[in-house]
Each structure stands twice: as structure tokens, then as C-alpha cells.
Design goal:
16 strands; alpha+beta; 562 residues; 5-stranded antiparallel β-sheet; 54% helix
Length: 562
């Protein structure tokens, strides 16, 4: 709409306002009113912020205490089962492989349980689920062992809870729960101990939607800190304020049935910082009001002649700008149409190329099958390996052709289809193949191609060579997340296994799993994909082999490959 038309709708009273004295008086009244209202709202919000922080700390402490109670109750139940498995008072402590398996089953059934330990009366470990056989050490000087041996009030009945920092196995602080083993009256037979990771409670803490920095602490009755976490948007500042002894809004809650207290503390500085951030809202309102009064006063003092001159200049600028905007809009519309057409053509062309590549690979596979039928058995195996690798790439081209993103595929879906094809074509012993890829993982074709060939090599290698005696076994493939964006592909079998000495295996030409082209190709492809391949075997060359392919984020993988 032209500016003159807009101007004609304005009230003519704007040109008949009082003089400068009236304008200054109106500005002063508006300024005082704005400042008074802003100060009143700011003080009210300050009191509300402190009360909200107090209520938040109280509710959070209740939740922390409830989850800590559930963690201790569940862990103590496992601990009691561990004491029962140790046998009656006159029985020797279990230290064989069968006993280790029973205790390991308890650990596997509880996600936050790290390990179970059995110690004899001298503090020497008899059994641990960490590894078998049990490492040599002594815990006679540890507080939990001395408390159980003395049987004093510090042990809290039979259950004793303490903390352990810098654990060399889990690389994280642990919560330790211990109970004495069954023994004849007046005798001390040993201690059963479970190491619990605080991840369960810590994850609950992280799920709290707080507006402030806070610290959450679990303490024993004697003041020993079992767990201390600092969370929130200003967690670093919160830790520094706590170390400096600044005032805090805290709430204590006793954990049911155990001598443990949960404390949630919110630094007052964090509450005040959030409240001070809201002050800018009131300042903005005051400045906006002052600006509005100034504009109205300026309009009242302006001359009609200068107003009309400015209006004519603005009208001319408006007309010129409108014409240029229309021209530019038409140019942009044409450019967008051309770009959309080009993108559509490229997508169609890329789909057609992928389809032709897939068809050509299938023709090559057919030619190789015909040629393999005319050659002897040793050369046919080489043909079969080449055919399998080409089929692996053909499957990728087929998924790319069907994908909505021509340059990316879901590697989890590809892995399931690849393994289904391998178990039906490359499985002389009838081994069972399982695939666990619970979530999709989108990869570009440059990184997916070497990973696909790695998966094909490892799975087919396990199906062909893991069971030389002909008995069926199990080969499992897992694709699980690792870190924030990376993934871990694990191929394991329960077959003949690899020798414990890799160098000796590489020197034997008959060991196809270790010295053939497959492993060399796997390592080269892993370097191309920026991944890391790890081979885990039994120390004594026993049954079972596990190949772990750790794939970092895409940016890290590209850096390694470069």
C-alpha cells in the first residue's frame, strides 16, 4: 500500500499535540511508572525463584532417595544370592569354573552390577566374575573387610556399604556392598562383595529437568560420600561454587531401610543468575516505553512541512524498492525452477546408473558361475570368493537404487540381507547365523562399501573355516552403537578358534583363517573406512573367535582414512 494512503488514515490529533512542556511531563510520568512496575515484578520474581528452587530440591531429593533405595535393595538381593552360592559354614569356598559361571550369570542378569567377589578369612580373593582364574591380591586392610571381620556396629547388621574410587577395571567410581559368608558361631569364614556401578542412579539424575545447576550426593551415616554428581546448565560453575563454600539451597532425604542419606543442593548463585537474566526483560520493557514516548514527542514537535517532504522521499523509495523486489522475485523463481529441474534430472540419472551397475554386476556373477563350472576345485574356490565379493557390492547397489537417498544406505538393513544370503550360499556345515542390528545406521556409500566387504569376509570366513570337523555351530553378528555417534560391528563364533600366537598362525600356510587373503583384505578395508579391527581369541587357542570392528563417527573416520 502506498505511504500516502497509510498516512491519510492517521489521526490528525498527532499534529495538534501540546508544546514541549507537556511532552516532557508525559515522558517523565511514563518513565516513573515503567520503573516502578519493573522493580515490583523483579522483586516478586526473585522470591518466586527462591521458592521454586527450594521446592525443586525437595522433590528431587525424594526421587533420588527412592531410586537409591531400589538400587540398594536389588543389589543386596544379588549379594544374598552370592552368599547362598558360597555354601554352608563348613563347605569350601567355590573357586572352580562351574562356580565362576554361576556367579557370572548373576552379573549378566543385572545391568548395573559390575562384579562379584568372594574373599577368604585372610582377605585373599577366591573368586571374582571379573576374570577367571582369580587374580592375586589382598583386601585385609579395606574398610569393608575389617568391618565385616570385626562384626561391630559399623557393619550395619550384616550389610556394609562403602565407595571405591579409581577402579582399574571399570574406570569409574563404584558402590560396594558386602556381607559376611555363612560361618560357624565365633568364626569368620570370609566376605562376599558386589561392586555396583552408579550409572543407574546417575542416569536418573541426568533425566531431571532442572532450570538450575545442582549437586546430588549420596552419603553414608558416618558422612562417607558414596556418590557425588554435579549436573545442570552451569555444572562447572556449580562445582566451583560448592568448593568455595557459597550458600546453597539444599534438601536432605533419608533412604529407606539403609543408613544412607540423599542430598540435593542448588547454589543460590545459580538461582540468582537465572533471576538476573530475567531482569533484562523488564529493562527491555522500560527502554521500549522510553523509546515510544520519545518517538511520540518527536512526532508532536515536527513540522508539517518536513513531514511531507520525508513522506514524498519515502514514497519514492517505496516505489523503487517494490519494483526491484518484484524483479528479484521473478529471477529467483526462475532460478529455483531450473535448480529443481537439474536436481530431479541428476537423481533420475543416478538411479539409472545404480540400476545399470547392479545389472552389470549380476551379469558378471552369472559369467563367473558359468566359468566356475568348467574349472577344478581349487580354482573354483577362488572364483566363489570373487563371486561372493561381487554379490556383496551388487546387493549394495540394489539397496542404493531402492533408497530415498541415492548416496546413503541403511547399513543395518544391508547387514541383515547380506547375512541371509551368505548363510544360504556359504554354509557347508549348516551353522546357525544370528544377526542383532536393532537400530538403523545411515552411511554414505564411500564408508559403507569397505564395511560391507569387511562384514562379508568375516561372516563367510566363519561359516567356512570355524567348524573344520563338520559339526554345526553358531555364528553371531552384532551392530551396536558405541559412543555418541559411532558403531561397533562384532562377528563371533564358537568354532575351532584361532591359535594363541598370531605370528605362528601366519607362518602356517594351512591356517586359512589367519594367513589367507581374507584377513589382509579386512585390514586394508578397515583402514580405508577409518575403522579399527580387533581379534579376540582364547589364550590357549580354545574354541571361539571374536572379530570387533570399531567404526567412529563419520568425521573421525574420514580423518583416519586420510
Amino acid at each position: 500500500m502506498p505511504l500516502r494512503a497509510l498516512r491519510s488514515k492517521g489521526s490528525p490529533l498527532l499534529y495538534r499535540m501540546p508544546g514541549s512542556a507537556l511532552v516532557l511531563m508525559v515522558c517523565a510520568v511514563a518513565l516513573l511508572l515503567t520503573l516502578g512496575l519493573s522493580a515490583s515484578f523483579a522483586l516478586r520474581d526473585r522470591a518466586a525463584a527462591l521458592q521454586h528452587a527450594q521446592d525443586t530440591a525437595g522433590n528431587a531429593s525424594l526421587l533420588v532417595a527412592e531410586h537409591a533405595a531400589r538400587l540398594v535393595e536389588t543389589s543386596d538381593l544379588i549379594l544374598k544370592q552370592a552368599v547362598q552360592l558360597a555354601g554352608p559354614a563348613d563347605a569350601p569356598l567355590p573357586s572352580d569354573r562351574a562356580g565362576w559361571e554361576r556367579y557370572a550369570a548373576l552379573v549378566r542378569g543385572t545391568p548395573y552390577l559390575v562384579s562379584i567377589w568372594l574373599f577368604d578369612a585372610e582377605g585373599n580373593p577366591v573368586l571374582t566374575t571379573r576374570r577367571f582364574p582369580t587374580p592375586a591380591m589382598n583386601v585385609a586392610d579395606r574398610d569393608y573387610f575389617m568391618a565385616q571381620r570385626t562384626g561391630g556396629s559399623e557393619a550395619g547388621g550384616n550389610l556394609f556399604i562403602t565407595a571405591l574410587d579409581n577402579n582399574r577395571y571399570s574406570q569409574e567410581p563404584l558402590i560396594l556392598l558386602s556381607r559376611p559368608l555363612a560361618a560357624t558361631p565365633g568364626q569368620f569364614r570370609g566376605v562376599a562383595l558386589v561392586a555396583v556401578s552408579p550409572r543407574y542412579v546417575r542416569d536418573i539424575y541426568k533425566s531431571f529437568d532442572f532450570d538450575y545447576a545442582r549437586s546430588i550426593t549420596l552419603r553414608r551415616a558416618d558422612g562417607t560420600v558414596l556418590l557425588h554428581e554435579t549436573q545442570g546448565p552451569d555444572a562447572t560453575d556449580s562445582a566451583a561454587a560448592e568448593a568455595a563454600g557459597e550458600p546453597e539451597i539444599s534438601a536432605l532425604r533419608r533412604v529407606d531401610s539403609v543408613p544412607v542419606t540423599a542430598e540435593v543442593a542448588i547454589p543460590v548463585s545459580s538461582v540468582m543468575e537465572r533471576w538476573q537474566g530475567q531482569l533484562w526483560t523488564y529493562i527491555s520493557y522500560a527502554l521500549a516505553a522510553l523509546a515510544a514516548v520519545s518517538v511520540i514527542g518527536g512526532m508532536a514537535l515536527q513540522r508539517a512541512r518536513r513531514e511531507r517532504q520525508a513522506e514524498n522521499a519515502l514514497q519514492h523509495a517505496y516505489d523503487t524498492l517494490e519494483e526491484r523486489v518484484l524483479q528479484r522475485t521473478a529471477e529467483l523463481a526462475r532460478t529455483n525452477a531450473q535448480l529443481e529441474t537439474a536436481v530431479t534430472d541428476k537423481e533420475v540419472l543416478l538411479k539409472e546408473v545404480q540400476h545399470r551397475v547392479k545389472n552389470n554386476l549380476q551379469v558378471i556373477c552369472s559369467l563367473l558361475r558359468l566359468q566356475a563350472a568348467r574349472i577344478d576345485e581349487p580354482a573354483r574356490r577362488a572364483f566363489d570368493e570373487s563371486l561372493r565379493r561381487i554379490q556383496c557390492m551388487s546387493l549394495m547397489q540394489e539397496l542404493l537404487y531402492r533408497s530415498d537417498q541415492p548416496a546413503r544406505i541403511d547399513f543395518a538393513d544391508y547387514l541383515r540381507q547380506l547375512c541371509d544370503g551368505l548363510v544360504r550360499s556359504t554354509n557347508p556345515t549348516g551353522a546357525r547365523l544370528t544377526v542383532n542390528a536393532p537400530q538403523p545406521w545411515s552411511l554414505d556409500v564411500d564408508q559403507a562399501t569397505p564395511l560391507a566387504l569387511i562384514a562379508s569376509e568375516l561372516v563367510s570366513n566363519a561359516l567356512l573355516h570355524a567348524f573344520p570337523l563338520g559339526h554345526p555351530g553358531t555364528v553371531s553378528v552384532e551392530l551396536l552403537p558405541e559412543g555418541s555417534e559411532g558403531m561397533r560391528m562384532v562377528v563371533r563364533d564358537d568354532g575351532a578358534g584361532l591359535p594363541p600366537d598370531p605370528s605362528a598362525a601366519q607362518n602356517r600356510a594351512t591356517d586359512k583363517r589367519q594367513s589367507g587373503l581374507g584377513l589382509v583384505l579386512v585390514r586394508a578395508l578397515a583402514q580405508q573406512a577409518g575403522a579399527q579391527v580387533t581379534i579376540e581369541r582364547q589364550p590357549d587357542g580354545g574354541p571361539g573367535t571374536r572379530f570387533i570392528v570399531a567404526v567412529p563417527t563419520l568425521s573421525k573416520a574420514q580423518t583416519k582414512a586420510a
